[in-house]
Design brief:
Oligomer: single chain
Strand content: 15-25%
Number of strands: 10
Order of helices and strands: EEEEHHHEHEHEHHHHHHEHEHHE
Helix content: 25-40%
Strand order of the largest sheet: 1-2-3-5-4-6-7-8-9-10
Number of helices: 14
Distance between the termini: 44 Å
Structural class: alpha/beta
Length: about 350
């Protein structure tokens, strides 16, 4: 454990239910980890997508009352930010070597060791899902299960590589300019919430746009470079034995990647949930669509949601909005079926 100078209280910690920021020194630099909940409970590690942090990537899910009931009742949450992506981050020194994806995965191990954690549950979005999958492949004994949202597993296609190069050039020459933010918002959200000439963009998109203003371009570019040089993980996916639950919006630019990744997992240990009219960031755009599949996923681990919120109109205890396949005996936490569940906007 590091000394007391490594732990820095958040100014807005009341918003995060008593959360506290820790600066964890690793071989590849300092990492911000926001912890909230009872540290005697099992650990849930989160990792966000490019240019995001826990505030812009997971707030919708964790501020959903049913999610608070399910997740905070069972876990202590450890929000890990990519280097330089945390709230109030300063620009990383230019003389510091940019990390590789292996470096970022190894930082997760150092975070677990810093807090004295054993095996953990992991939740990541897109680039963050790739980092956590790589971590699970390198350190299998440290991962109980994976919840992956619009994940990546292959090396970048030529199209993605080109888009990433365009973003790198925009970051280098113009910083977090308006065009770059539009490209990122298209990466995160469906057109339904990004707005049209007739309808304004939604509150979640406006909030994300404001939070992107706080990112330093050089820090974002370092993470982008690591992701753009990532190796293909396909060959190792079938050897993973931790259970994996994959969510993807059917409007996500990474939809086909999520389908491909699902096909490469061992079918005994994986399941896919497709969310209609949703982009990549299901955690923000339609967090309620994640609740029921997560509840049944956690049952395998003996984790349950307390029933005091069971009268909620979106309660995971209501069977009306879940595919019958998920209600089969094999999927009630005993065996997780490799299904595709479409969740409508009315959920």
């Amino acid at each position: 454990m590091a000394d007391s100078n490594d732990s820095i209280p958040l100014g807005a910690e009341k918003i995060y239910l008593g959360g506290k920021e820790h600066r964890v020194r690793t071989r590849c630099g300092s990492v911000s980890v926001i912890v909230y909940g009872d540290q005697d409970k099992p650990a849930l590690i989160t990792y966000p997508d490019l240019a995001l942090n826990h505030m812009s990537c997971f707030q919708g899910l964790f501020f959903c009352p049913e999610a608070a009931s399910l997740l905070l009742h069972n876990f202590c949450i450890y929000h890990v930010s990519p280097p330089g992506h945390e709230l109030g981050a300063a620009p990383i020194c230019e003389n510091t070597s940019p990390p590789s994806v292996d470096d970022l995965a190894d930082q997760i191990l150092e975070v677990l060791n810093f807090f004295g954690l054993g095996a953990v549950m992991c939740m990541g979005v897109t680039a963050g899902a790739y980092i956590l999958t790589l971590f699970a492949m390198k350190y299998r004994e440290r991962v109980l299960g994976l919840i992956l949202v619009s994940p990546l597993c292959q090396a970048p296609s030529w199209t993605e590589w080109f888009y990433n190069k365009v973003m790198s050039n925009l970051l280098y020459f113009y910083g977090m300019c308006g065009l770059l933010k539009e490209v990122l918002l298209q990466r995160y959200f469906s057109k339904e919430v990004r707005g049209t000439a007739e309808a304004p963009e939604s509150d979640i998109v406006q909030a994300c746009r404001r939070l992107l203003d706080e990112r330093h371009a050089s820090n974002v570019m370092r993470f982008l470079q690591a992701i753009n040089r990532r190796p293909d993980l396909t060959s190792g996916l079938k050897r993973l034995r931790c259970r994996t639950l994959i969510f993807v919006g059917d409007s996500s630019p990474f939809h086909s990647e999520a389908l491909y990744m699902t096909s490469k997992f061992d079918r005994r240990f994986s399941a896919l949930v497709e969310v209609q009219a949703c982009g990549s960031m299901v955690t923000e755009e339609q967090p309620h669509a994640m609740l029921i599949p997560m509840e049944y996923f956690f049952m395998h681990y003996g984790l349950y949601r307390p029933c005091q919120l069971s009268d909620s109109p979106r309660s995971p205890l209501s069977p009306s909005c879940i595919s019958p396949e998920l209600l089969s005996p094999e999927s009630m936490g005993l065996k997780l079926k490799p299904i595709k569940t479409r969740v409508s906007l009315e959920v």
